Amino acid sequence: MDISITDEALSQLRDVASDEAVNLDDTLLRIAVVPGGCSGLTYDLGWDTTVQDDDELTEVDGLRIVLDAKSALYLEGSELHFTDGLQGDGFHFANPQATRSCACGESFGM
């Protein structure tokens, strides 16, 4: 699995985990691609404590990340960013496989 996370996004993820009292020693970040949005697919981030048989597991700078096999295919080569400014704040993916996205940037298509 080839996915990267910027330093800003890693810092923000650790801050969120701390704010939510999430113990990163036994909790993973689950990244998924799910149906939705005006372009057909959206990204989903959440904390998880289980790894399924078909999941792919990786680690980025000490943060364990898990993706289901289908999401891993959609996210190959992607980078997770965090922005905090006038252009909208939050987590955003730079996905080289996306062929279209909606105006708000919340969904994409392939």
Short description:
The protein has 110 residues and is α+β, with helices and mostly antiparallel strands. 18% of the residues lie in helices and 41% in strands. It contains 2 helices and 9 strands.
Any chance you could write out the topology, listing elements then pairs?
Layout: E1 3-5, H1 7-19, E2 28-35, E3 41-48, E4 56-60, E5 63-67, H2 69-75, E6 78-83, E7 90-94, E8 100-101, E9 107-109
Parallel strand pairs: 1-6, 2-5
Antiparallel strand pairs: 2-3, 3-9, 4-5, 6-7, 8-9
Strand content: 35-45%
Give the averaged pLDDT, no decimals: 85
In the sheet with the most strands, the strands line up as 4-5-2-3-9-8
Silhouette: globular
Radius of gyration over all CA atoms, rounded: 14 Å
Give the SSE string.
EHEEEEHEEEE
**Major sheet: size, sense and barrel closure?**
6 strands, mixed
Task: Give an overview in words.
By secondary structure, the protein is an alpha+beta fold. Helices cover 18% and strands 41% of the residues. The chain is built from 2 helices and 9 strands; from the N terminus they run βαββββαββββ. It has helices spanning 7-19, 69-75; strands spanning 3-5, 28-35, 41-48, 56-60, 63-67, 78-83, 90-94, 100-101, 107-109. The strands form 2 sheets. It has a 6-stranded mixed beta sheet with strand order 4-5-2-3-9-8. The protein has a 3-stranded mixed beta sheet with strand order 1-6-7. It is globular, with a radius of gyration of 14 Å. The protein starts with a strand and ends with a strand. The model has no long low-confidence stretch (mean pLDDT 85).
